[in-house]
Every structure is written in structure tokens, then in C-alpha cells.
Amino acid sequence: MSVLSRFYNTTIKNQMIVMLALLAVTGGVQHGLNIVIPQILLCLFSAVGLDFLIILIKTKKYFFSTSAVISGLIIAMLLEPGAPWYVAVSASTIAIFSKHIVKINGKHIFNPANFGLLIVMFGFKAYLVWWGASINWILIPLGLLIIYRFKRFHLILSYLVSQSVLLGVIFIFMGQAITNALLMVNIFFMFVMLIEPKTSPVTLKGRIIYGSLAGIFSAVFMSIFPSYDPSVLGLAVANLLGLLINKKWK
């Protein structure tokens, strides 16, 4: 079996880890490996180590969590390169604690990585730069493969349309070119964070509404809170509303 065949047939989580690792290495070359590698390792050790410890305490079993790897990589690539060590550790540990603690009826409320970033964004005034998100020749083909396997095209399309339309209207009133709305689309956010299965609605209609709300709130926050990351804010609100969506559209 070829390498490509093995990659295609592996789990979606493994595909996500490979994609994030490639983005991290490529982005690291651009921003300085000596700066980003310590940050990546710090986030990974914090997230994976804490998750391993919590699972061991709860189940008395050794378990290596690939979801913790994904959370650690996401956090490392969204924080500015060379962010203070305590910001990286705080975001990663908060993400894992939220996964195990912030639940209703055993269901996750917030995307863990997003929640960790949200807290440090407000608590430490952390600046998010998405330094690993600009390598589109890696992100788009691998992201589309993951979306295809997840069957989540409707989710990202609803987000894309709602955000672009609302931003287009806002830009018209501001006297800016409507085409700028498409330039504001966060592809990494769509392909990696928005589709997280444990915090998105379970039904097709619910996911379409969820994606639309994430897009709308992202556009609104982009306009009224320019100092804070609109994608992170929008997803946090959509996560909360996802609970109501699941109750309404079961």
C-alpha cells in the first residue's frame, strides 16, 4: 500500500494531525523554527500531558489522546510566534480542562482549543495571528479531503455564505469594495475548528443553522470588536447556541 493510500485510509483525526503538522513545519520555516518549535512543544506537552493524567485518574488506564494533539497544535499555531510561555501553557491546559469539565449531560459545550484561546485572549490580552493558517497549498487540498470524509460541506458553505453576505453589506455601507468580504474568509477556521464534531449539532439542518450563526457572529464581531479575534468569538457563541439547536432540531 502506497503512502497516499495509507494516508487516505487512516482515521480523520490522524489526517488532521498530519495536515496540522505540515502547516506547523511550513509556517515555522517562514516565522523561524527556533521561535515556533518551543511554542509547539510547550502546547503539545501541556495539552497531551494533562489529558493523559486526567484520563488516567478517571479510568485508571493509560490512553494517548489524539484530540489533545490536535488542540495543542491548533493553539500553538494561532498564538503569535514567541508568545509568553505562560500564555501557551494556560491556553492548552484550559482547553483540556474545558473538555473534561465544561459539559451538560455529558456533552461538550465549547470547542476545547477555541475555549482556551478565548480565555487567554481576554485574560492575558493574547494576540492571535494564525501563523500556520496561510499555507493554502497544504490547507485547501487536505482540508477538502477531511471535509469530504466528515461529510461537512454543508456546514462550511453555510458559514462561508452567511459571513460573506453580511460582510459584503457592511462593506457597502462603509464605502469599501464588496469583494473584500471574500478576502476575509478564514479557511483554516472553516476546515479545522468549525467542523469539530463533538461541539457541532448532530443533524444536517442543525449544522447548517450552526454554521450560519458562526458566520454571522464572526462578521458582527469583526465590525464591532476589531481588537479581538472574530472567528474565536463567533465560534464560542455558536457553541453555546448549539445546545439550543440540538434541542430544537433533534
Describe the structure.
The chain is globular and about 55 Å long. The mean pLDDT is 93. The protein has 250 residues and is mainly alpha-helical. Strands 1-2 form a two-stranded antiparallel ribbon. Helix 3 packs antiparallel against helix 4 (66-78). It has two domains: 3-123, no CATH class; 152-248, no CATH class. Helix content is 73%, strand content 2%. Strand 1 and strand 2 (107-108) form a beta hairpin.
Give the SSE string: HHHHHEEHHHHHHH
Structural class: mainly alpha
| Strand adjacency order, main sheet | 1-2
Residue share in helix = over 70%
Q: What is the general shape?
A: globular
Tell me the Rg in angstroms: 18 Å
Sketch the major β-sheet.
2 strands, antiparallel
Structural domain count: 2
CA(first)-CA(last) distance? 41 Å
The number of helical elements comes to 12
Low-pLDDT ranges: none
How many E strands? 2
Mean pLDDT: 93
Name the beta content range: under 5%
What would you say about this model in short?
The chain is mostly helical and 250 residues long.
Layout of secondary structure:
Layout: H1 3-9, H2 12-31, H3 33-59, H4 66-78, H5 85-101, E1 103-104, E2 107-108, H6 112-123, H7 136-150, H8 153-173, H9 180-183, H10 187-193, H11 204-224, H12 230-248
Antiparallel strand pairs: 1-2
Helix pairs in contact: 2-3, 2-4, 2-7, 3-4, 3-5, 4-5, 4-6, 5-6, 6-12, 7-10, 8-11, 11-12
